[in-house]
Amino acid sequence: MELGLLYSGGKDSTLAALVLDRFYDITLVTAHFGITDEYEHAREAAEATDFAFEALELDREVADDAVELMLEDGYPRNGIQHVHEQALEAVAELGFDAIADGTRRDDRVPTVSRAQAQSLEDRHDVDYLSPLSGFGRGAVDRLVHAELDVEVGPSEEIPRADYEAELRALLAEEHDEAVIREVFPDHDQTYVHGLRD
């Protein structure tokens, strides 16, 4: 069975791919807006972990709407959630038997409710899987430490292909660094360089 997994190049989505690899032919799919070429970081992480990769360009309007939500709210949650939902919809339309992401049990954003998952499945005749939804951060970190070579650091310094990178770039087109720091609090990101030997 063919599965498309939303992929950022980080530890959670890579671990999700490893969990599902026994059961599916996996393609790691990175959704982007064509604002930057940050999605190439995900391509490199996919190659380093020996998974097929596909870049999927979303409509720029999705990013514009997300930035508007973030500016209104003063924080990124609703904007990131909006992008994730649109990305799942787009991957569901690619013809895979199943779609997945790396959301964990204790994630604040993005999340996928039971109703959203059921709606995706019903409307697109696809299975939605969230293989890490029963794992907390500690369990994920222990599994990642055992299996993956991961770089961890401040969000603005780590190579990544998550939604945040392009949304920051879009914010920077019209706002100064102070606005970006207001919307995106300091936090760490991860980037997978490959599998541990």
Description:
With 197 residues, the protein is α/β, with parallel strands linked by helices. Helix content is 46%, strand content 20%. The protein has helices at residues 11-20, 39-48, 60-73, 77-92, 114-124, 137-147, 163-174, 177-183, and strands at residues 2-6, 25-32, 52-57, 98-100, 127-129, 148-154, 188-195. The strands form two sheets. A five-stranded parallel beta sheet has the order 3-2-1-4-5, sandwiched between helices. Helix 5 (114-124) links the parallel strand 4 (98-100) and strand 5 (127-129). The longest helix is centred in the middle third of the chain and has 16 residues, at 77-92. It is globular, with a radius of gyration of 16 Å.
Task: Provide keyphrases for this structure.
single chain, 197 residues, alpha/beta, 5-stranded parallel β-sheet, 8 helices, 20% strand, globular
Quick summary of this structure?
This protein is an alpha/beta fold. Helices cover 46% and strands 20% of the residues.
Give the rounded overall mean pLDDT: 95
Structural class: alpha/beta
Placed side by side, the strands forming the largest sheet appear as 3-2-1-4-5
Question: Largest beta sheet, briefly?
Answer: 5 strands, parallel
Strands, total number: 7
For the record, give the distance between the C-alpha atoms at the N and C termini, rounded to a whole number: 28 Å
- General form: globular
Fraction of residues in helix = 40-55%
β-strand amount = 15-25%
- The number of helices is 8
Radius of gyration: 16 Å
Order of helices and strands: EHEHEHHEHEHEHHE
Q: State the low-pLDDT regions, or none.
A: none
